[in-house]
Amino acid sequence: MLLKNWLVFAFFLLALACVCFFFVGHAHPQGISGNANVSALFAFGDSILDTGNNNNLTTLSKCNYFPYGRNFVGGKATGRFGNGRYPTTLRDRLAHRAEAQAITGFLSVHLRAPGYAKWSGGREAAHVNTPRGRGSKSGGGHLSRAEGLSLKPLLPAYHDPNLSNNDLPTGVCFASGGSGLDERTAKPQGVIWVPDQVKDFKEYVTKLNGVLGNQEKTNAIISNAVYLTSAGNNDLVFTFWTGRSQSTTSAYTDLMVTWTENLLKSLYDMGARKFAVLGTVPLGCLPGIRKIDGDISKLCSVPENQWADTFNKNLSVIFNTLETKLPGAKFSYVDMYNSLLDLVNNPQASGFTEVADACYMPTTSPIPCPDASRYVFWDRAHPSEKAYQTIAPKIIEELKDKLA
């Protein structure tokens, strides 16, 4: 029975390691608001933010294969695990400053850190990142705008072997699919544990300083960047689920909150000041969990939702205290739980017709559905591109208000 449970959740984690939310799917530099001073975007945590760091790891937690990315530019799976691009309509709007001031968020980061324009010489970079890698600069358009600085349509993975020094100043992704706050979540899978991602960030800062050649410029980028974190999903559905007889929900989620605080404090000590912290999704409503714990009606599984809700409530109340403890820090809690639960409970309002099943269920239906936009969930563990696009505007407005 124990082996069966491990196999079931090993597969679940493989699925959970296969998507990247809209937050880092596109990192097209613009400001959080008209008065924002945001230099870069960094991401830490699990598959919700992983843009391909697992591609070259010896792990099952990777999704750089078809049908992932089938609706992405070029139909290519890149390690960003979903069916396609992430709010491209938002990204396109951000090319126009007037609209950016109305709807923008840290999806797009306008490189305006003090001293950076001087370092770059005000010139457009010779290349821009493309969905397929580095390519020639476009002849105009939003990929080569923003005060003469090179803009990245995609946030690169730190462990991408093609990452160049030109990619460093506007931010990178450190997140690793399948990872978590608990070492017992990450290590057995061969993925990058969250505290080790912080070590990667420390290494990154050293590299950035070498590229810029000036500590003041490095400090300006680090302090004016936005830091996204998403961790806890895997800890609950894997580590806590398999060992819940040895701990209570309250005790384990308290540990998770403490680990999250430690993560934020570690980044703060290295100069980070603006944080967007994602809560866990409604785990019991994921198609993979419904199949395991739900009855034939495929209702959301209550225990997993209760675990997620307990953690999220405890997490969401720590930030006022942290802002007192950490002078100059700003925090925004991103309520992924209720944002997605609203779609699950009222799908028709947003044009969805399928909630309990996913478009792609490899163990039962290896051929993905023809139209993922009808589905709230792309696979067993992740929302579809349309689901992300539906919840994005409200979340981004909240982030803009709190982090500007």
Description of the structure:
One of its GO terms (molecular function) is lipase activity. It contains 15 helices and 6 strands. The chain is of the alpha/beta class. The chain has a single domain (2-403), classed as Rossmann fold (3-Layer(aba) Sandwich). A 4-stranded parallel beta sheet has the order 1-4-5-6, sandwiched between helices. Strands 2-3 form a two-stranded antiparallel ribbon. Strand 2 (127-130) and strand 3 form a beta hairpin. Helix 7 (194-212) packs across helix 8 (215-223) and helix 10 packs across helix 12. The longest helix has 21 residues, at 249-269. The protein is globular, with a radius of gyration of 20 Å.
Give a quick set of tags describing it.
404 residues, alpha/beta, Rossmann fold, four-stranded parallel β-sheet, two-stranded antiparallel sheet, 39% helix, globular, disordered N terminus, GDSL_lipolytic_enzyme, signal, SGNH_hydro_sf, GDSL
- Structural domain tally: 1
Share of residues in strands: 5-15%
Total strands:
6
- Second rung of CATH, namely the architecture: 3-Layer(aba) Sandwich
> Nearest-angstrom radius of gyration?
20 Å
Approximate shape: globular
Q: State the name of the first-level CATH class.
A: Alpha Beta
Characterize the biggest β-sheet.
4 strands, parallel
Number of helices: 15
Q: Helix fraction?
A: 25-40%
Assembly state: single chain
